[in-house]
Amino acid sequence: MPTLSFRIGRTALAALGASALIALSGCGPRPRTANLTIQSADRTITVIGRADVSSKPDVARANMGVNVAGRTVGEAMKMAETKMTSLMDALKKLGIAEKDIRTSNFSINYERQYPEPMPMPEAAMAPAPAPAPAAPKGGKGAASASAASQPIVAPVAPPPPPPATGQYHVSNMVEVVIRDLSRVSHVLDTAVAAGANNIWGISFSIDETSAVEGKARELASADAKKRAETIARLSGVTLGPVVSVSEVVGGGGMPGPMPVALAAGMDRGGTPVSPGEVTFTTQLEVVYSIVSPAAPEDAESDD
Q1: Which of 57, 227, 286, 294 is the most exposed place for a label (fewest CB within 10 A)?
Q2: Total structural domains in the chain?
Q3: Is the pLDDT of residue 139 over 90?
């Protein structure tokens, strides 16, 4: 007798199982209905957990250098070179390593200056003609004598415009890493005394961030789970295991630059600098599956 093969899907198996239970209900004890758990990747809850962890910084960074002007490029370059050499020597004498001094900007610009225009000279007046003889009253003779008495203005060419002048600006900046925060104020004052007339972009950070970032991720993960549990409870479902986790790029936080205005030759006891704290912000996008108990079907009576 030939054998028939069938490929039965999950839905068909479920239907066959239900039919078998009904068919056997009269032949044996009534079977107990089991609660099935349905887990589907399409039924998920997506949340974003966030955490902020603050810590004291251990390094400072500052951009400092010189900005000079000269009538020629060579003159401006020579002035900038002299001042930068003095600045670099002063920084190295403070114990700052060469690896912590990096050129951040160098530029040469020409500034054209236009002098004020010269005023127009007064128009040259031609000598007045000799008075005309008296003419009889009325008639054309009187009109001609009046016209002849008016002065004649000689045209004068405008003066040539003054030549434009200008100067060359040379800017040379270095980024300095200061690893001893107790000496930040002293480094800034020493730089100004050595010739630096441009200091900006002072910022504080943590050199080794792995421990702080790890703590932030741990707290962000806990925050994501708490949010997902709340959403699941409000939705009347049960939270399942994690399907995927991704870190939101750009979630890390660093302190913004703190500008410090310093005037060369300024009489002061020391530049006040406060490092404060560095705050790292981490965000995790976590996708949880939903596990919902299936509603039990009403079984038939034994009748």
Answers
A1: 294
A2: 2
A3: no
For residue 249, is it within any domain? yes
- Using the 3D structure, point to which of 205, 224, 240 is the last residue of a domain: 205
Q: Are residues 178 and 87 in the same domain?
A: yes
Per-residue tokens: 9: 């899907």
Q: Which residue has the higher pLDDT, 141 or 277?
A: 277
Tokens standing for 143?
């009109």
Is 176 in contact with 61 (CB distance < 8 Å)? Answer: yes
Total-model pTM: 0.56
CA distance 115 to 110: 16
Place of tokens 């405008």: 158
What percentage of the chain has pLDDT greater than the value 90?
A: 50
Q: Confidence band (pLDDT; 50, 70, 90) for 273?
A: confident
- Residues 28-73 pLDDT 10s: 444 443 333 444 547 999 999 999 999 999 999 999 999 999 999 9
User: For residue 232, what are the domain limits?
Assistant: 35-56+208-257+267-295
Residue in the structure block whose two tokens are 């016209």: 147
| 46, 180: one domain | no
Helix axes 73-93, 184-193, angle to 10 degrees: 140
For 191, the token pair is 């730089």
At residue 240's C-alpha, the angle toward residues 235 and 241, to 5°, is: 145
Q: Give the pLDDT score at 32.
A: 42
Neighbouring C-beta atoms of residue 82, cutoff 10 Å: 13
Together in a domain, 185 and 201 = yes
Distances from the Cα of 34 to the Cα of 30, 38, 279, angstroms: 13, 13, 52
Is residue 271 situated within a structural domain? yes
User: Are 65 and 194 in contact, with CB atoms under 8 Å apart?
Assistant: no
